[in-house]
Every structure is written in structure tokens, then in C-alpha cells.
Amino acid sequence: MKKNLSILLACFLLTGNLALAQDATMSSDFAQSSDTKAQRLSFFNHLDVAVEAGSTGIGFDVATNLGNSLRLRAGFSAMPEFTLGMNFGVDVDEQLGRTAEEGTGESTFDKLSNMIEGMTGTKVSQNIEMLCKPNFYNFKLLLDIHPFQNKKWYFSPGVFIGSAKIGHAYNAPESMPTLYAANMYNTMYNNAMNDEPIIVMGSFELYPTEKLIEEMFSYGELGFKVGNRISDGSAYKMMPNEYCMVSADMKVNAVKPYLGFGYGGNALASSNKKLKFSFDCGLLFWGGVPSLVTHDGTDLVHDVTGIEGKMGQCVDLVKCLKVFPVINLRLTRTIF
After folding, report:
1. What gap in Å lies between CA 335 and CA 46, rounded to an integer?
2. Residues 55-64: tens digit of each pLDDT
3. Which of 80, 79, 69, 75 is nearest to 49 (CA)?
4. CA angle, 221 as apex, 218 and 226 as ends, to 5°?
5. Separation between Cα atoms, residue 103 and residue 96, nearest integer Å
6. 184 Cβ neighbours under 8 A, 6+ residues apart
7. Structural domain boundaries in the chain
8. How many CB atoms lie within 10 A of CB 259?
9. Exposed e or buried b for every residue in 125-164, given b needs 16+ CB within 10 A?
10. 311, 74, 57, 262: which is closest to 163 by C-alpha?
């Protein structure tokens, strides 16, 4: 009897242990299944911080995951400030660089320059220096799509929102005397052609002589021959504004769609690889060919043709930039 009880107790203990082991196995399988499902549906449980440099300037971004194959990335970038110089020729009578008249040794520009110097005390230069500066900055929001299992390659549709005026050109301070003299002479010229006094000081009015009117008419206005107007073929001269300055702005859309791809660091990486290099390549769509608008409202890209010299090279380059190429290198740090 005691022997039978011992056998029965041993069977009971063995059955209990088997049941407990089976329950533990079922619980472990259920937990693993739940963990896999949770991982597949996880959001915002990874965070990357990155710095970048490239064609859009210098910037930073933060990124987090949306599930297992999507990453949401937001950041800001700006082009560092720098200046490029560019020269424009001062033109008289719509003929830039007119040759010296036979037997005189002086060109038309030389004669007009000497006359202006005698009238204003300012020597007129035949070139105006322009300074060009970028004004390119953007906030960005991108969705990185990882189509492959290793999560290295990704495609990035998104949008950049930032400056609409992405570049500004203006005359150098050294050119101010020439612009001031040009404005003064052009005012006298227009008044003389309209039979008005060329100088008014209080009640004193000075009218030009017939000889001066004839001489000024032979020279024409003093300006900057740029090209010919597309609308009617007439010559376009850029004249100084009322502040004796000339300027131009490069303009695009403020909202710029983006489509690109990349390879490298991502917020889905394992925690033991916290620091990574990556790159982004793509195209920024800023609404067709940019505009290059002068201070008098003329669009040098769309309204003027036949532009020569460095300005012509600049305008030809702008016409090619229907989209902006993006090539950026990124250094990424995984926070968690």
C-alpha cells in the first residue's frame, strides 16, 4: 500500500511538472508573438539626430520611425554667406565700347565722361562691380521609405519650405560715385530733352543752351547695356534707381517638392551602431526656371535676350536650373 502511494505521488508530481512546462512554453510562444507584432507596429521608439552639408548648405535634422519601414525626418538647412563679384559695362548711346572717333583719340564714352566730370566733379568708370550673395534656406519634411530588409537604402519624397528670394545682387560701394554721376546726368538729359531746366535751386533755374542739348542728344542716356527686350527687340539698359543703386533678385517658389534617395544611417538601426555616415541625392522642384528680376522690374531670364559677358553666363546658368540638384552628406547619431 505504501509502495502504491509512493508510485501515485510520483506520477502526480511528474504530470504537474509536465503541465507547468507546457504552460510555460505556451506563454513564451504567445509573448514572442506579441513582441513581434508590437515591433511590427511600433512608432516613435527610435530617434536620430544628424548634421549635414552639401548643395543645400549646412543644416541638421531629427528622424524617428513610423513602423518598421518608414522614417519621418524634419530639419533645417541654409547656405553659408559668401560673395561673388561680377562686372557690368557702362554704356552710352546703346553702343557699349564704341571705338574712338577718327582723328580725335577719344571714344563717345570718353567725351561724355569728361563732360560729366566737369559738371559734377565725379569721374565715371566704364565698369560697375556687382556683388552676388546667396539667400538660400529651407525647412524640410521628408518621409524615408526603406524597401529592403537591411534598411540601408531609402527613397525620400517630401517638401522644402523656405526662401523665395534665393539670391541677391547689388552694386559694390566702390561703384557708387559712377552711379550717382549717371543718375545726375540722366536727370539733366531728360529735362533737356523735355525743354525743362536742367538745374533747379530754389527760385534759380538753369536751362541748357542749344549746343548743350545737341551734344547731350548725341550721347544719349548713360546706363548699363544688358541685352534686347524679347517683346519688341529694343535695347534694354539698366538705369540706377532713385537711391543711385542697381540690384537684381533671383526668385523661385517658397514651397519646393523634393524627390530623392539615400543610403546609410537610419533610425531603425540596431543600438550598437549609434554613429553612421549617409548621403542623400535628389531633385528639388522650385517651379520651373527661376526669375532674375532687376530693381526696375525687368526679368532678365524671361524678358531679355542677347545678354553677353559674365551676366549672360549667369543668366544661361539660371535657365538650366529648372530643378535644383541635391547632394548632401550626413553624420547621424542614434539617440535611442
Report:
1. 7
2. 999 999 999 9
3. 75
4. 120
5. 20
6. 116, 119, 120
7. 42-334
8. 15
9. bbebebbbebbbbbebebebebeeeebbebebebbbebbe
10. 57
pLDDT for the residue numbered 259? 97
d(CA 280, CA 330) in angstroms, rounded, equals 8
Say if residue 44's pLDDT is above 90. Answer: no
In contact, 286 and 208? CB cutoff 8 Å: no
Poorest-pLDDT segment among 18-32, 122-136, 168-182: 18-32
| First-to-final CA distance of the chain | 65
Per-residue pLDDT reduced to its tens digit, 141-152: 999 999 988 888
Contact between residue 165 and residue 250 where contact means Cβ atoms under 8 Å apart: yes
Residue with cell 534686347: 228
